[in-house]
Amino acid sequence: MQKSILDGAAPRADLELAPTQSQAGDPEGPLYELTFKGEAGGTLQERQSSLTARFFGARDRITTVKHDQAILELSAKSREKPKLLKPHFLAGLAPGEQLLVKGPFKAGEHTEWMWVEVNRWEGDSLSGTLQNDPYYVKNLRSGSAVSVNFNDVFDYLYVHANQKTEGNETAALLEQQAR
């Protein structure tokens, strides 16, 4: 794990355990949760994301691009694969597997396209955890619970259990345009 620590990271964390309520499927007996006390963010997931970014370091950057015809066509094509993955996702991903989608988040005249790790898919609604810290959208942060309409998805990233990835098909074209 030390190889993944970026320059400027603060690889130290103070964690606190707190008693928590059991939920359906939990084992008998007292349960405790990590609270990530002292980290920025309102929800447990936001505080966990904040600690992880601080501990290992994070590199988020904003890239301004125009959605020209070539990018829009590639984006539409890249939406086809998640449709094929839907039955596999609904059956339950294996440990280590992840499905992420790039969805739009609006702030005034700005639209930020950010990655969401999907944890629920009902109809055309994908719900999950935001994986980026927004630049324009001030009411969200990495770790926020968000929803995206499948028809608005720009791209996808599927991480296999062996960490091999597929998707992110628009990345090369977006990078090319950003130069």
Walk me through what this model shows.
This protein has a six-stranded antiparallel sheet. It has a two-stranded antiparallel ribbon with strand order 1-2. Helix content is 24%, strand content 28%. The two termini are 32 Å apart. It is of the alpha+beta class and 179 residues long.
Helical proportion, percent range: 10-25%
Global morphology: globular
Topology as H/E string? EEHHHEEEEEEH
Average pLDDT score: 88
Instruction: Give the structural class.
Output: alpha+beta
Strand order of the largest sheet: 6-5-4-3-7-8
CATH topology annotation of the largest domain? SH3 type barrels
What is the name of the CATH architecture of the largest domain?
A: Roll
Largest sheet: 6 strands, antiparallel
What is the highest CATH level, the class of the largest domain? Mainly Beta
Tell how many strands the DSSP assignment holds. 8
* Strand portion: 25-35%
What is the distance, rounded to the nearest whole angstrom, between the alpha carbons of the first and last residues?
A: 32 Å
Global Rg: 18 Å
- Domains counted in the coordinates: how many? 2
Number of helices: 4
**What ranges have pLDDT less than 50 throughout 5 or more consecutive residues?**
none
